[in-house]
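Running log. JK asked me to keep both predictions on one page so they can be read side by side. First protein, sequence followed by its tokens:
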Amino acid sequence: MARSGVRYEDVQRAIDALLAKGEAPSVHKVREVLGTGSFTTISEHLREWRTQREENRDQPPPRGMPPALQELAEGLWEKAQAAANEALAHYRQEADGRVETAREEALEASRRAEDAEQRESALSAHLASTEQRLAEQSGELARREAERDALAEREAKLRRAQARLEQQLADLQQAQERKAQEHQQALAEQASHHQERLTQEEKRHESSESRLMALLDEARQERQAADKAHAQRHQQLEARLEKTERLVQEARSALAEEEKRHRETDWARRQAEERTRTQQHEQALLQGRIDEQKQLLAEQARRLRELETQLHRCLWQAPVDAHREGYERADETEDEKGPANAEPSGEE
């Protein structure tokens, strides 16, 4: 419904003024003449004026004028109406063709937009999956790095333990050599002492052979006991040395195993870094493709808006141009035949 701001009579007066100037009425021109009013209200009044004009077009001209003038006016009116109808049919046909073309282009643009949206959705899903895999591999890489750090710390501890064991082994070997020297020295001193005693006893008791033999037996027993104790201590030191060497060998095996695991972990880390760089490159390529698809969608949306604007312009301008051309042809016909029709009127 039209608002009460601009009335139909105001729009009709503005249309008459435009027709008097030889201009075809339109919403913008009527509003320029009125200086106020909304485009919706003016468009509704203009549509009503055109409807009434189409309804009154087939009505015969008023009676009371000379028959020749009336016949001439009817002929001019029929010719103007035929020309207007022909021009209107031509413009309608052309407008229909443009509308059909615009619809086909709009359908094609919609189809391309849907295809682009589907591709964008697929690319987005692939990108999300890639980002998820990248996050998982980043977590795996962080875990491997933590394991590598733990292995490095454990390797350092094993090396420190190996150094301590080697130092203990060296200390044990030095202690064993020192004790062996002390034992040899003690045996030499003991033998020297017994020899001195034996010499003294021989000097004192040369006649007491039995006493001498007893002393010799005692010296032999003491020496055998000392040799036996030295052998036992030597066996104990050898057992401790073998145990220490076994511990060192185990530590070296564990160190070799840790070094092997460290090399495997480092190789896995380099592989993960290479895959991460590859996935980052793929992600950059996917982002470039998504940007291209977005630009294509924006271009298609812009062209669709242009097509809608052209369609709207064709729909509004076709009837106006047809009526305007009809008026111009009618004016030209009246200008050409005006003087010839004036003479019969003078004679009557």
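And the second, directly underneath as requested:
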Amino acid sequence: MNEDKPDWYSRAKKAPFSDEKFTSEMKKNVHRSVIFTDGKPKRRKHLQVGFAGGLMLLIILIAFQLPFGREEQQRAGTLPPGTEETIRAQGVTDEGRLRVIAVGQEKITTLGAPSCFGIETDMSFTGNYSVQYSTNQVTNEVTTLGDLTFIQPTSAPVDMIRLPFQAADVFILAPQYRDCHGIQIYAFAVEHETGKAVQLRFQDESLVSYFSYYRPGTTPMVKDNKLVLESTEGPGGEGSPDYKPKRMYRLDLKQGIMEQAN
């Protein structure tokens, strides 16, 4: 029967791969090749689209945070170290700077109506404050002022009044620039010899306090190395036997006081 077959049939049996079978391993290789060549471009395209979308979302989030994130942090008093501080008042010496810095959140409002304390557009700042003196890149805290209210025409730092004494520069802080009767003040001294800054107390006869006052429309001054504060008339006016139109204070740095002189 084989003899009846043509010659080419016998020759075909001897041709290459005549007895090769298409094994399961070969099928797997072909299947992997199809997946690789057909699916890779799709995955690459999907990755590119996903990356572009993520980048766009990140840019939007950053743009949203830039104008609003810092403001919210400042309100909450949580600005990270190295960011700008809120300076509510300052005074400058030849060697350094005295600053009153807000600690935590301030309550900020406008007066809304004219009064003895200011006009309707004046701003009120209430909070806790740290008084610091900086010189030669060294900063020391002088004291803290708690629950203090500033009333000023703008949010710019208040310039403290600098008064030259023989032993020190004395700075007068008036948180409120206007009042009906007396403008309340605090005093700080920076000693010439040591550069040390301290808060001063006012001693009026038997009374010692960390604040005093001067009459609206006047300015604290130094005369004969003494602090001069003009008094307000107050209840009873000039008819009071204890009334003194001007009060004089001697600076005692050792005790850290302004002692009233007779």
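Observation for JK regarding the second prediction: DSSP finds two helices and 15 strands in the chain.
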